[in-house]
Each structure stands twice: as structure tokens, then as C-alpha cells.
User: Which sequence fits this backbone?
């Protein structure tokens, strides 16, 4: 049984979420890589309208400008609300990008990278997480694998404390509670 669809922009985003979301919440989630922000929205509306199963959209905000983030979230919510027919959905924006979850704890990312970061590097990491991680870890395809192969369960729990991951956990938990009540 599919509890919900989680639609992201890329397979790399799916890898991050599958590693950071608790197994009991992610096991019944159907993960889909949309390929672009527009396709994520389009897939979300289609799935809500046709499958009547909850949808979570996880997108990069691509900005840290509060008003632009609010407008983007508001527009996506408006579009989804038009087709939802009361089916739960939620839009999650990684500000500025989903990879920011790796950069919430400076000492942890320094341990993983096996080096210290100066203030300028750290400032870059917060504004351009993907670019920063590519610079530090090299090949874009291997970033997630290199990070996850260098952390233990306790460090995963630290990453799970990021507000974005906590919001997703809360949403998925509410779906499990709802499905238990309905069944």
C-alpha cells in the first residue's frame, strides 16, 4: 500500500530523503524524481487529482529571500489545492537547496570532509550548498555516497534534526495516524 507520493527534483534528492527519513515512515512512500521544479508541480497535481493519495513535494527554493520563498510556496499550494479534493498534501522547500541539511552542523561536515572550513567557505556553504559540496567532495555523482559512507547512526540522527527533515517527518507521521484511524 502506498501511503504517499514524495516527489523531488532529482534522484540525488531521493537518496538524501531515503537515508534521513526514519524507515517506518519511508517504507510505504513512493519516491519519484520529477527532473525539474515544473515537472514536480505537474506530477503532484496529476497524482493528487487521479490517485487520491497524499503527496509531498520536496523542492529547492533556489533562494533565501523570504518573500520569494513565500510566493513560491503560496503559488504551488494554490495549484495543488485546486485538485486535492481534501487529500492531504504538503510543499517542502529546501532553503536555498535540500543539501543544506548536510550543512547545519559545521563540525559534522568538517569531520566528514576531513578538513576545517574558514568563515568565507562556511558562508558560501550556506548560500550555495550544492556548489559547496561539489567543491569539497568533487564528482557530483558521489557526494551523497561519500557523505553517508562517512557517518554513523548518531550522526544521521543529527542530520534528521534539521527543520526541513522534521517538517517532513511530522507530515508523514500525520498520514500514518490518519490511515490507522480510517482503517
Assistant:
Amino acid at each position: 500500500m502506498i501511503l504517499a507520493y514524495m516527489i523531488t527534483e532529482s534522484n540525488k534528492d531521493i537518496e538524501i530523503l531515503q537515508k534521513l527519513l526514519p524507515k517506518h515512515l519511508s517504507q510505504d512512500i513512493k519516491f519519484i524524481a520529477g527532473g525539474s521544479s515544473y515537472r514536480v508541480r505537474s506530477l503532484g497535481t496529476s497524482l493528487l487529482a487521479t490517485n487520491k493519495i497524499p503527496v509531498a513535494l520536496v523542492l529547492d527554493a533556489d533562494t533565501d529571500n523570504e518573500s520569494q520563498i513565500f510566493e513560491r510556496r503560496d503559488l504551488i499550494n494554490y495549484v495543488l489545492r485546486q485538485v486535492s479534493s481534501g487529500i492531504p498534501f504538503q510543499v517542502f522547500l529546501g532553503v536555498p537547496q535540500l543539501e543544506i541539511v548536510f550543512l547545519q552542523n559545521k563540525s559534522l561536515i568538517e569531520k566528514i570532509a576531513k578538513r576545517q572550513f574558514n568563515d568565507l567557505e562556511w558562508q558560501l556553504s550556506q548560500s550555495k550548498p550544492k556548489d559547496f559540496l561539489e567543491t569539497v567532495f568533487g564528482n557530483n555523482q558521489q557526494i551523497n555516497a561519500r557523505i553517508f559512507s562517512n557517518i554513523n547512526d548518531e550522526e544521521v540522527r543529527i542530520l534528521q534534526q534539521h527543520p526541513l527533515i522534521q517538517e517532513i517527518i511530522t507530515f508523514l507521521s500525520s498520514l500514518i495516524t490518519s490511515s490507522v484511524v480510517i482503517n
Notes: The first strand starts at residue 4 and ends at 8.
